């Protein structure tokens, strides 16, 4: 728990923390809620739980997992064009979008991505002031 | 525990310039058209006895000119994206392309009797092209740190391609001075199984694990299923080659088992993996796709995979009959049916994607950009499928009946299939965004996204 709190403290207002655990812990969830976080619990397997912890200021996560390639790419690029400076866009996609990243870098957008156990990925894209 | 806003970047891969896969893709239909013209010109002669030069020419227009041409273009594109292996000296792809085109053209002209005496030059050019391809793309994929069945399958396909070159060169010596090392049928058997199941089958299976879930939103394939197909295919490629090596040091006929029969038995696992287990797994997954919207390229996969067990059955039948039509029918269904239809379908999905990605994706949000599926009308793709299937069926009839008229109509349909394919590939390559309406201060890089960082 101290380590989780430490990482939470470092998390940006628009960040997202993913916790993997062998058991679901009600105490942990309650504690996170007490601290003003939004924990979302997903049971991935009988012994694999994932908790998505976000701040109240973290944007809603868009879900494009039901779109075939390259529709997630099309929609993400359309979304990030409209993104205000210092704002983030978080999206779930069916696969790690390797071809998206060079385009994001070309647009000087900051991104990071995390592969999920089911092959899908979560991508966090942020527009800084240096972006065109 | 992972924090999305704080984690490190994944390594960035560099897509190759659009021109590199594009030159391979736009040339492949030309080989199909040449094959159609050969059938139109020679009639049943090109569909009669498998050892006739015109039949060998027709076969290699299909395997080298269409399938290998497309597969090399695809590997240049996929190596960095799928295997995490940017191809070194990428501009050498133009030399590979030039040598390969010249080689296939010389081989076809020579075998058709239009320009005799080019056979040695053609083998030299083709081998040089493939060895150069393997030295760049092959080495990049072999050295890739990316794990998984897709990359392992790509490596198996590339190993098979290397073996094919070595077998082809040895067999070419037999063609030139009519002196085969051992039984001709034995070498031919290993050449065919390595080509169809190792090179073509290995790459089709490897790529399918990656693109079927991505393009058609199917569930992920289980690791067990992928490993079974890869294991069977690997065994079926290695065992016949082991028989070949053993036959060089042991008497060719021991215990009543001919080396050819041993090579056939050795190839059996690959036939099971590529023509039975793989189509079963893919078709089952396609039935479970989350989005039921019918994509024309999906029809190619379904049809090609449905033909896979028939290809396997015909391969078995050729082992038990002396009728040369069985061998021809097997080759026709394997090359123009199973593999040809899948490759045709993949082109209809990959080429629009590459054009869209390189030319339009950078402008999304800054100007009106067409959706990828609007770049190529579905009706054109369906028309191409109709031509392809008609030529396949009619070709089978021509082989069975040995009818010159039916053979020529088949030739016309094969030519039309190639023309249809060429037409829409050129149509796609000519599509460009209207840059006058793009916001100022923003530029595109045709040479490959990611290069400008």
Largest interface: A-B, 48 and 43 residues
Strand element count of chain B: 1
Tell me the structural class of chain A: alpha+beta
What would the average pLDDT of chain B be, to the nearest integer?
87
Oligomeric state of the chains?
A: heterodimer
Q: Summarize the helix and strand pattern of chain B as letters.
A: EHHHHHHHHHHHH
Q: Into how many domains do the coordinates of chain A divide? A: 2
| Helix count from the secondary structure assignment of chain B | 12
Ends apart, CA distance between termini of chain A: 40 Å
> What overall geometry of chain A do the principal axes of the alpha carbons give?
globular
Order of helices and strands of chain A: HEHEEEHEHEE
Helix and strand content put the structural class of chain B at mainly alpha
| CATH-assigned fold name of the largest domain in chain A | Translation Initiation Factor IF3
Going by CATH, the homologous superfamily of chain B would be Cytochrome c oxidase-like, subunit I domain
Strands in their spatial order, largest beta sheet of chain A: 4-5-7-6
Whole-number mean pLDDT of chain A: 81
Global morphology of chain B: globular
- What is the assigned CATH homologous superfamily of the largest domain in chain A? TusA-like domain
Total DSSP E strands of chain A? 7
* Main sheet attributes: strand count, strand direction, barrel closure of chain B: none
Give your account of this protein's structure.
- The complex is a heterodimer of chains A (132) and B (453).
- By secondary structure, chain A is an alpha+beta fold.
- Chain A is built from four helices and seven strands, in the order H-E-H-E-E-E-H-E-H-E-E.
- Chain A has helices at 2-10, 26-34, 71-81, 100-106, and strands spanning 16-21, 38-45, 48-54, 61-63, 88-93, 110-115, 121-126.
- Chain A has a four-stranded mixed sheet with strand order 4-5-7-6, with helices on one face. In chain A, strands 1-3-2 form a three-stranded antiparallel sheet, covered by helices on one side.
- The longest helix of chain A has 11 residues, at 71-81.
- The N and C termini of chain A lie far apart (40 Å).
- The model of chain A has no long low-confidence stretch (mean pLDDT 81).
- With 453 residues, chain B is an all-alpha fold.
- Chain B has one domain: Cytochrome C Oxidase, Chain A, CATH 1.20.210.10.
- Helix content of chain B is 73%, strand content 0%.
- The radius of gyration of chain B is 22 Å and the shape is globular.
- Chain B starts with a strand and ends in a 24-residue tail after the last helix.
- Classes of the chains: A alpha+beta (132), B mainly alpha (453).
- Strand 1 (16-21) of chain A pairs antiparallel with strand 1 of chain B.
């Amino acid at each position: 728990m101290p380590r989780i709190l430490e990482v939470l403290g470092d998390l940006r207002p628009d960040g997202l923390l993913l916790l993997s655990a062998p058991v679901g812990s009600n105490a942990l969830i309650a504690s996170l809620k007490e601290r003003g976080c939004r924990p979302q619990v997903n049971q991935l397997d009988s012994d694999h739980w994932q908790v998505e912890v976000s701040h109240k200021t973290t944007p809603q996560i868009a879900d494009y997992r039901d779109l075939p390639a390259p529709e997630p790419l099309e929609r993400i690029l359309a979304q990030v064009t409209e993104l205000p400076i210092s704002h983030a866009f978080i999206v779930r996609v069916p696969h790690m979008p390797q071809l998206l990243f060079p385009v994001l870098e070309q647009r000087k957008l900051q991104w990071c991505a995390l592969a999920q156990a089911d092959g899908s990925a979560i991508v966090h894209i942020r527009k800084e002031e240096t972006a065109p | 525990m992972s924090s999305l806003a704080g984690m490190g970047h994944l390594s960035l891969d560099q897509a190759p310039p659009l021109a590199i896969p594009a030159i391979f893709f736009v040339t492949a239909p030309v080989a199909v058209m040449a094959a159609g013209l050969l059938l139109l010109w020679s009639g049943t002669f090109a569909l009669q006895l498998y050892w006739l030069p015109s039949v060998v020419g027709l076969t290699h227009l299909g395997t080298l000119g269409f399938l290998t041409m497309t597969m090399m273009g695809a590997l240049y594109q996929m190596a960095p994206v799928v295997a995490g292996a940017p191809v070194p000296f990428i501009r050498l792809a133009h030399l590979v392309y030039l040598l390969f085109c010249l080689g296939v053209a010389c081989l076809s002209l020579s075998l058709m009797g239009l320009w005799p005496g080019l056979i040695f030059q053609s083998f030299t050019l083709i081998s040089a092209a493939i060895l150069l391809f393997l030295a760049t793309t092959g080495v990049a994929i072999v050295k890739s740190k990316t794990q998984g069945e897709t990359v392992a399958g790509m490596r198996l396909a590339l190993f098979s391609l290397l073996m094919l070159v070595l077998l082809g060169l040895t067999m070419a010596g037999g063609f030139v001075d009519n002196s085969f090392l051992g039984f001709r049928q034995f070498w031919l058997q290993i050449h065919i199984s390595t080509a169809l199941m190792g090179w073509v089958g290995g790459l089709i299976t490897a790529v399918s694990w990656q693109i079927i879930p991505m393009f058609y939103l199917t569930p992920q394939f289980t690791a067990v299923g992928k490993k079974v197909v890869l294991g069977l295919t690997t065994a079926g490629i290695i065992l016949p080659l082991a028989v070949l090596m053993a036959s060089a040091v042991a008497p060719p006929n021991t215990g009543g088992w001919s080396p050819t029969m041993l090579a056939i038995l050795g190839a059996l696992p690959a036939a099971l993996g590529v023509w039975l287990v793989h189509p079963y797994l893919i078709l089952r997954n396609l039935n479970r796709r989350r989005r039921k919207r019918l994509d024309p390229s999906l029809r190619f996969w379904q049809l090609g995979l449905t033909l896979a067990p028939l290809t396997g059955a015909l391969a078995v039948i050729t082992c038990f009959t002396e009728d040369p039509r069985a061998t021809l029918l097997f080759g026709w269904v394997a090359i123009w049916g199973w593999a040809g239809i899948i490759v045709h379908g993949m082109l209809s999905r990959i080429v629009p994607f590459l054009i869209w990605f390189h030319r339009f994706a950078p402008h999304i949000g800054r100007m009106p950009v067409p959706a990828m599926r609007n770049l190529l009308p579905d009706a054109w793709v369906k028309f191409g499928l109709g031509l392809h299937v008609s030529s396949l069926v009619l070709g089978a009839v021509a082989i069975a009946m040995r009818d010159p008229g039916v053979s020529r109509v088949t030739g016309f349909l094969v030519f039309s299939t190639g023309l249809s394919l060429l037409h829409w590939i050129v149509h796609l390559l000519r599509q460009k965004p209207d840059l006058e309406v793009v916001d100022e201060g923003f530029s595109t890089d045709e040479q490959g996204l990611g290069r400008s960082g």
